[in-house]
Write a structure and sequence with these properties.
Two copies of one chain form a homodimer. Chain A is of the alpha/beta class and 412 residues long. Chain A is built from 13 helices and 15 strands. In chain A, the strands form four sheets. A five-stranded mixed sheet of chain A has the order 5-4-3-6-10, with helices on both faces. At the A-B interface, helix 1, strand 12, strand 13, helix 10 and helix 12 of A face helix 1, strand 12, strand 13, helix 10 and helix 12 of B. Chain A binds a DNA duplex (30 and 30 nucleotides) through helix 1 and helix 3.
Chain lengths: 412, 412
Amino acid sequence: MSLTHAPAGAVRQGSLRELNLALVLGRIATADRPPSRADLATATGLTRATVSAVVEDLLAGRLVSESDPAPRSGAGRPARGLVLADQGPAGLGLEVNVDYLAVCVVDLAGQVRHRTVHRADLRPVAPADALARLVEMAGAAREDAARHGLTLVGAALAVPGLVDDAGLVRLAPNLGWRDVPVPALLAEHPPLIEQVPGVPALVVDNEANLAALGELHSQPPGPSSFLHISGEVGIGAGIVLDGALFRGVRGWSGEIGHLPVHPEGRPCRCGGQGCLEQYAGQEAIVTAAGLARAELPADTATARLAELAEAGDADALRALHDAGTALGVAVAGVVNLLDLDTVVLGGGYAALAPWLCPPVLAEIGARVLTAAWSPVTVRPSTLGAEAAAVGAAGSVVRRIVAQPAGWLARAG
Amino acid sequence: MSLTHAPAGAVRQGSLRELNLALVLGRIATADRPPSRADLATATGLTRATVSAVVEDLLAGRLVSESDPAPRSGAGRPARGLVLADQGPAGLGLEVNVDYLAVCVVDLAGQVRHRTVHRADLRPVAPADALARLVEMAGAAREDAARHGLTLVGAALAVPGLVDDAGLVRLAPNLGWRDVPVPALLAEHPPLIEQVPGVPALVVDNEANLAALGELHSQPPGPSSFLHISGEVGIGAGIVLDGALFRGVRGWSGEIGHLPVHPEGRPCRCGGQGCLEQYAGQEAIVTAAGLARAELPADTATARLAELAEAGDADALRALHDAGTALGVAVAGVVNLLDLDTVVLGGGYAALAPWLCPPVLAEIGARVLTAAWSPVTVRPSTLGAEAAAVGAAGSVVRRIVAQPAGWLARAG
DNA sequence: GCTATTTGTTCAGCGATTGAATTATTTGCC
DNA sequence: GGCAAATAATTCAATCGCTGAACAAATAGC
C-alpha cells in the first residue's frame, strides 16, 4: 500500500508552512540545476505567491541563497536561481573504526567541507580514550567550519557494531567494545554543537547503516532502494528502501554476515554454522589467498590483495572468486526477499569489486527468480574509505533539509 | 532516518482538512474503545473545536456513527462514542488459488460481512473462465452487501504468483498461469464497483502479500513489523515494515522460497540449488512423510499430515522437524537481515505450526546474533484459510480510512 | 436543588494559501 | 531607439480551516 503517508500527529495551521518549507527546500536540494521560484511553483504545485513567501523565509534563515548564473536565458525577465547556502548549518560526522578515527563536516548541499583521518590501531585503546581523541579532532573541525561560516547543528557517530536506540554500543566485536555508553562518555567533553529543535545533538549508529546513507545522498543521485554491503572484518549491510534507511524493529537490521551460505559448514563465532562471514569476511579472504594476516592491518591487506589479483596471482584470484560466490549466494537471497535492483559493494569490498562482482552476478543470475525480467546492478561504492563518516555528517544535514522549521525558529 | 514523512506533493489549504480527516478517522479505527470527541482531541493534539468539525464531516459522510454505550461513566456530561460505520463503503476481496476460489466483503471496521468459497481444482481451468466464475460469485456478494447497506468501492485480487504494477500476472507456476492480463479480462464483465477518488477499482497482488496485510489488520492488533510466511506448494512471504507492506522495487519481494538452505543441495526449478522450497514446500514435506501426494489435493494433504503428527507418526514428525529446521535457517537469515521480532506462519503452515515452531525457534536461537537481547516470536496466523481474500478486501477499506476525503467528496 | 465536572458547540481572530492584478526586467522586432 | 511580447516575481483582498475562550448541555454526588 504505497499511500502517501500523512504526518504522524495533528496538522495545525502552522504545520502547513512547515511542510511547504520542507517541500520547497527539498526540491531545491534535489534539483539538478538551480531552480527559479517559478520552477518551484510548477514543480510543487504551489502558487508562485506561496513559493515566494516560502523562499523568503528560507533566504532570511540563510538556508538558501540566490545563485549568480541564471537558470534560463531567453525572452522575459531573467529568473533568479536558488541554491542551498554554502554557509549556515552543517553536520559533524564521526567514525571510530578498527584502524582509524575519522571526522568530517558536510554542508547543506552535501559537500564535504572538512575531513580529518587519524590512522591508528584502536583495538588496544580504551573507548573513553578513543572518544577523547575524536573529540579533539572534532574541536579542530568545528573551528575550521566556523571559518567557513558553518555552524555544527548535530553530530553522528559511526561504530562497527550493534548500537541501541539510546546510543549504547552493545557490541563491537572487532573493536573489543561491549556496552559502551557513548553519549555519557561524550557528555563529559564541552559541547561542539549548537542545538536546533528537531535535530538530535548526537546520534550513534552502525557504520554500515551510515555508509549506506552516504551512498544514498551521494552525487549523482542513485536509486532510492538498494543494498549497501560493507565488507570489513565483519560484513554489515545497510538497507535503503524508498529513500529511507531501514533499521528494523530495534535498529539491528543488516546483519548479512550471518546469513547461512553453507549451513553445515564452518562454525561461526555467532553460534551458527557456515555463515557468510566465514567465507567472505576480510580475514577469510586474506587467509584463503595465502597472506599471513597478522602482519598487516586490515586496509593494507585489502590493498595488497588487490595488487596480487591485478598481477594475476592464482591464489588471490581463487580466494576472491570463492568469496564472491559466497557473497553472491547471500545477496541472491536478499534480492529474492526484498526485490532490490541495486547492490553496492562498499568498505573493503569497494577496492575488490572488479573481482567480486562477476561471481556475485553469476549467483544472482542463477538463483533469483525475477532476474530474467529485471536485471540487478552490482557496483562498487562511489564514496571513499571513510564513507560512514561522510554518511553520518550527511544524515545530520538531511534532517535540516527535511525539517527546516526547527532551524528557522532558532535563527529568528 | 525515522523522520515523519511529509506528503509527497504540495500542502494546500484543503490538504489540511484532508490530513486531519484521515488522522481522526484513523484514530477511531485503531482505538480499542469507541472514543469521544474529547478523547480524540487529546489523542491527536487537535482542539475540541476542530475535532468536532472534522467529526461532523465524517458523520455526514456516513463513515462513522455514534455508538450507544457511552465510553465513559462518572461526573460530567456523558460522552458520545464514535465508531466506524457498519454501513457505507466496503471492500471486495477476491482470490484465485490452486484448489479454490474465494470472495469476501469487508466493511470499514474490518469485519468480514460476506464470504463465499468455491472448491475446485483450478489448474485445468483457463484464466478467463476462472475469472468469470469469480465475477459471478462477486455479483452475488455485491447484492448481499447492498442488502446490508454496503457499497463496494474497490476490489483486490489475490493470486499465487508474480504480479506486476499493471496487474499483469507474469507467472503463477502452480496455477499454470503465465502473462495473464487480469484487468483486461475483468473489464469485459459489468463493473461491480462504485468508483471513488483515491481508491483503485482493481488491484491484483500476490497472495502472500495480501495475506500479510490481512494479518496486519486482524484483531487484536499485532506488531507493525513482521514476516508472514505462506506455506503452500511454493513458499511466499509478505514483509510488513512499520505498518506498511513492503513490495520491493517492482513488487516482487518476499520470494523466501528460494533462499538457499543447502547451497549444494537439491536442484530447484528456479535454477538454483538447495532452495528452501525443496525442503519445506508442501510437496517436500508430504513426500518426506511418506504420503503419496498424487492422491490428495494440497489442503487435504496438510490436514492428513497434521492428523498423523497428532497421532505420533514417526515419519510425519521427522518430516515436519526437518522442514521446520530448513525453514528456521531461512527465517534466521531474514531476521538477521531485517531485525524483525515476529514471524507469522500462515497458509498451509498455520495448521502445522505446533510442529514447525520448535525447530524454527531453535535455528533462530542458534543463528541470530541479537536473539539474546530480544526474543523472536513465531506463531501461527490468526486468520483462516482464505486469509488472502480477507486481506485483499481489507486493503481496500484501509485506503478509505487512510484517505477519507475521496469518499466524502463523492458522497457530498 | 446546587455544585463540580466533563462534553460538545459557537464565534471572533488569525495564519497561510489562493488567484488576479501589478510591477520588474529582459529579448526581439520594426 | 522604441515598443511589444514574454517571463519572473510581488502585492493584496478573499477565503479556508485551526485556535482559544466563552458558553451551553448533561450528569454524579452531596
